Amino acid sequence: MNSKYLIGIIVAIIVIVGAYFALAGSSNQQTIQIAGSTSVQPVAEKLAQAYMQKHPDVKINVQGGGTSVGITSAQQGTADIGTASSKPKDSDAQGLVQTQIAKDGIVVVVNNANKISSLTLNQTKDIFSGNVTDWSKVGDSSGTISVITREDGSGTRDGFQNIVMGGKNGTPILKTAIVQSSTEAILQAVKGDPNAIGYISLASLSGDVKAVTINGVTPSEKTVSDDTYKIVRPFIFLTKGQPTGIVKDFIDFTMSPEGQTIVKQAGAVPMNS
Length: 273
Hints:
ten-stranded mixed beta sheet; two-stranded parallel sheet; single chain; alpha/beta
């Protein structure tokens, strides 16, 4: 038999056998779907990466969309775990099991060129309500303030509204504020506008923007953990009923010392802090 022909047959057999085992392996792969808060998303992604390294037969898909998406996805069962960065209303929480995986500070951020480095809670409220419209009213900078906020349904916005603006029946955020649909969009908008102000998750804070102190307190793991920083909200995993199987195992991993270390490395404040 021609040696080239024989080699061709052997290669074909190897390819077929390899494809068979690949397909057999993939058929045994288990998946976890996670969707919701864009603030929780980076933390969930790091947890998922660590878990998949330990469990090669498990695939975890993490998506954003906002807290409202996390709640709805958990309720409807389109996600195994919904993520939220604010506590669901009682009417939305029926049938859902909540696991708080971390605490997070909502950080008020300005452009790096802004001379403002501190605000009081009342000044922040006045800016976001439109009562103060120029930086000269609150510090050494000057210029018309560009207010940037998150969309309705965002857990970050809900947390900010509840803590800074006085709740659902409190002072509304300025109607003409620029609305962005994700933490990253807020970051980019503030980075690109010297007069902008917005709010983001502490877990997503980067050198692209400047965090201001609130009532003289710098947002940090320590000040969020001990509640001296006042704009704090929970990071929550939501499941439809009690979690079971690999979903329960992943949540148990998240709450373990190893998982909580990953939470900290991702920029959130662990529950055992």
